[in-house]
Amino acid sequence: MPGFIDNHLHFVMGSLQLSRVQLRDAASPAEFVDRIAAHAARLGPGRWITGGSWDEQGWTPVAMPARQMIDAVTADNPVFVTRLDVHMGLANSLALKLAGITRETPDPPGGTIVRDADGEPTGLLKDAAMPAMFAVIPPPTLDERIEAIRAGLREAARFGVTAFCDMGMSAEAFDDFRAWQRVERAGELTARVSMYTPIGAYERLKAAGIEKRFGSERLRIGGLKGFADGSLGSATAGMREPFTDEPHHCGLMMEPMTDGSMARWVGDADAHELQLAIHAIGDRANAEVLDIYASRPSFRDRRFRIEHAQHLDSDLIRRFATSGVIAAMQPYHAIDDGRWAERKVGALRARSTYAFRSLIDAGAHVTFGSDWPVAPLDPILGIYAAVTRRTLDGRHPDGWIPEQKVTVDQALRCYTTNGAWAMFAENEIGTIAPGHLADIAVLSDDLFSIEPAAIENVKVEMTVFDGKVVWDADAQ
């Protein structure tokens, strides 16, 4: 089949995470603490502990971590470990001190410093409160980025991924671009990379005269990435109505959405031929981003994108279809979040959440990706999730909200041809055809002939990039 196209991941972050503390499958607060303690012992005093991808929803009982849990085992190491959605992180007391965050520190617009009953920071920082911590964490060096990219490319090849959109998380995306260029010049690039840089820094691209798809067929600047809101798990998604479990809270809208900056940035960047991709989780956030896009003239092929497009209603689904805005979605989130999403939004709103089938049936442009390292990089697991919607806790063997399941053919198109179109690369990749680049994945099984529940066990036997074998399972 054509090589997989992952339409949304954070590649350098995921690659760096491979060597950082791993907390995603920590099954309890005690294991969470033990893993951080072991990592601190390996690093030695003074070194930052980062990474994480912790998920309190897998703990029994579900409870948010706090700095007091880890202070005793990290007295000599500043810590900031992020939740799996990267919209919340936990700092220990030493890290809070280094960042200057105290009980007197006000919540920034679009962010929350979580506090205890006495008003003291618990160590949890949400969304726009996190940059204060990132500002004091030493950034990885160029050599560290390059080495991480090499490791990440090996992972991508192992899973048959031959093209992806790297959604840079911060201004460091420009440092990532330098690392990507070094890897390409060394002839080590084994996937086609479309980089998205932060929308708040769009004037750097504008001043240089850069337009969408600037670069080579292997490394391009794809466009700009912005944030309208946060995430469901962190209760920072921008919702029209309150969360079911927090009846006085409707989430957070990022400051550029509330002060008019986002609309101004989109207008100016679009006028200078830059593609726009904006993260929107909640229904309010999706509606407001669609409004911004609708304000632009429709005289050229823009291929505006909304990243995630998770929580919609029937009107928003229709608007995606009629506007042509791309819904860049991540099906693994449905089987992960489906364990607990109804506690956040209720059964009624859940019916049109992660609405893959409704969007496709309405005629919307839908693409799939992983959001790695938020979710696993393996596209086979994404296809399994989209086709079965069997949640990770095993409680929905016939699928959580089964009417939103898609066919194998639809899922594959979302990971190949649709992804190529969203990258303005439909004449180069996404299909096996004369004149297209030879990016191919060879699977252990025919996805069309096996039971959907067996898809998760399928492996990539070989990956071909530009006509060259870059992964061979038999040679490992």
Walkthrough of the structure:
The protein is an alpha/beta fold. The chain has 18 helices and 18 strands. The chain has helices spanning 11-17, 29-43, 67-71, 93-99, 131-134, 142-158, 173-185, 202-207, 255-258, 261-271, 283-294, 314-323, 332-337, 341-350, 356-362, 379-388, 408-415, 417-422, and strands at 4-9, 21-22, 49-54, 79-83, 88-91, 111-115, 121-127, 161-167, 192-198, 214-215, 219-227, 275-280, 305-308, 326-329, 366-368, 440-443, 460-465, 468-472. Strands 1, 8, 9, 10, 11, 12, 13, 14 and 15 form a nine-stranded mixed β-sheet that branches. Strands 2-3-4-5-7-6 form a six-stranded mixed β-sheet. Strand 17 (460-465) and strand 18 form a beta hairpin. Helix 1 (11-17) crosses helix 6 and helix 12 (314-323) packs across helix 15. The mean pLDDT is 95.
Based on the model shown, name its key terms:
476 residues; alpha/beta; TIM Barrel; Diaminopimelate Epimerase, Chain A, domain 1; 2 domains; 9-stranded mixed beta sheet; 6-stranded mixed beta sheet; 18 helices; 19% strand
TL;DR of this structure?
With 476 residues, the protein is α/β, with parallel strands linked by helices.
Query: What is the CATH class of the largest domain?
Result: Alpha Beta
Shape: globular
Task: Report mean pLDDT, rounded to a whole number.
Answer: 95
User: How many discrete domains?
Assistant: 2
Quaternary structure type = single chain
- Tally of DSSP β-strands: 18
Q: Name the CATH architecture of the largest domain.
A: Alpha-Beta Barrel
Question: What profile does the largest beta sheet have?
Answer: 9 strands, mixed
Fraction of residues in helices?
25-40%
Structural class by helix and strand composition: alpha/beta
